[in-house]
Hints:
The chain is globular and about 80 Å long. The longest helix has 23 residues, at 461-483.
Amino acid sequence: xxxxxxxxxxxxxxxxxxxxxxxxxxxxxxxxxxxxxxxxxxxxxxxxxxxxxxxxxxxxxxxxxxxxxxxxxxxxxxxxxxxxxxxxxxxxxxxxxxxxxxxxxxxxxxxxxxxxxxxxxxxxxxxxxxxxxxxxxxxxxxxxxxxxxxxxxxxxxxxxxxxxxxxxxxxxxxxxxxxxxxxxxxxxxxxxxxxxxxxxxxxxxxxxxxxxxxxxxxxxxxxxxxxxxxxxxxxxxxxxxxxxxxxxxxxxxxxxxxxxxxxxxxxxxxxxxxxxxxxxxxxxxxxxxxxxxxxxxxxxxxxxxxxxxxxxxxxxxxxxxxxxxxxxxxxxxxxxxxxxxxxxxxxxxxxxxxxxxxxxxxxxxxxxxxxxxxxxxxxxxxxxxxxxxxxxxxxxxxxxxxxxxxxxxxxxxxxxxxxxxxxxxxxxxxxxxxxxxxxxxxxxxxxxxxxxxxxxxxxxxxxxxxxxxxxxxxxxxxxxxxxxxxxxxxxxxxxxxxxxxxxxxxxxxxxxxxxxxxxxxxxxxxxxxxxxxxxxxxxxxxxxxxxxxxxxxxxxxxxxxxxxxxxxxxxxxxxxxxxxxxxxxxxxxxxxxxxxxxxxxxxxxxxxxxxxxxxxxxxxxxxxxxxxxxxxxxxxxxxxxxxxxxxxxxxxxxxxxxxxxxxxx
Length: 665
């Protein structure tokens, strides 16, 4: 077995590999750029080597710099994680030439299956059903338009070396094909150093289901069942689960056996994933094979009990797989939520900055439930503009799907994260959505259910009553504390009343509180609820029980009440005396400023280009400028017809959130 391995990656996956290596008694080496000098993976590793400036194409994906780090530290093997160099055949070849083990598949398998165009041709030659498309290289945007018309819209424009949603665009017409080709080409070049593009038919209403395979160098190969990855946004997975709520045993077996056969046909070893599109009749079509560890591998680990990183290391060291296909059963259900540094209220645009508060739920594992959080950040750390916006992968496990979902809801409720925009509210909303809970979703779920973007959640009446009862009891705790302040005049003791009016989501509820040492009995709307908690004023997280059921609220103090965040809703709750509530109705509402004549930068980022100038007349939907952040290009478009009055930014400018890019007459 290896004594020392180098992790050619960063962030949560580097931390994940270090945990398993530590468990196996293997020393670890981290590499880091200038932007990551204080990163968690650097702190966790036994050694760390600096490899260059923040941009990945000047540090993490420069093969010579990684090889230098290997020589400096004497590492015997390299785990590439995912992204960066994980599917780079030249990197595997360079390691082999240097006598260093690659904890991944052989160079030939990477070349055969890691390249999306080649893998499609091989699958077709092996009579595997594939999605219609054009597998040849595409020279320019006009050729992309021509091919798109031949294939038939809608089409998917994809980077050949792509992954993680980078270099992918859906085009529904010639203009989108032209724009999408160029943006995909640019993203592919900056993310992977390979700008080759191919086009395939975009299958509407599909489910994205993938099979995890594992093979050793002794001819043994198994599949570890499937993962459902249909909840996607911009072709990037958001929520994954294992197993799929859609597959039956026959389809699962057929997909698994086909995946293993495909892997063996190319001499595959290590962990890999075969991805399929599955239609409503459970017909499945090969998409691609990812010749690396997947981001969502934890859900497979949770339902099989197999540590995939450990098996990758053991296979690379020449060991045989310790189990056969018949040993791999599905145990329970697992969910994974990808927590991203992106603002759901700004159309999920990237958000960077310092994590002023980062308190994930406690990790635990029992026979009936499990909570796991794979992360690469820490409180006080910074989310950089240079890398993927993922903060953490929160996973839960339970004996069945409904319980696993409920465990995830509670875990998300208790996840404290402040300082940046993040998608926690959106994740919470998805887990409460009836289409998701029924399991009847496709890859179009987010597009169909949130066509105008995410604007928060409106809580139902039952949730509002529970929150009103909880916050009134919490408010009374604060009032009792304020009544006991020292230095008051004698015979002027303040009495804390029992009657209150709680206002939230545009409705008011009359509340009567009967408190005792263990909690409070709250009468509200004809119902009587028992509220118990050890919450004290100032705590940002309130864990309560309301009528015996858990209720976890993120709370902040506002004048006369609380800011409450719960299950995707972000609401103001005012708790007032009856007289205060009467007077509050007379107060005018403060309106936000009018910014309709400005194009504001929606995220911190770099202006790639500006498409208009002062005096130009623009039409609705016309491209105004392109902003790059976290390796993704975002085209900002005109919301309506107008005339440009002034342009304040130019290509190459670095802007902050809400900086004015241009003004309109």
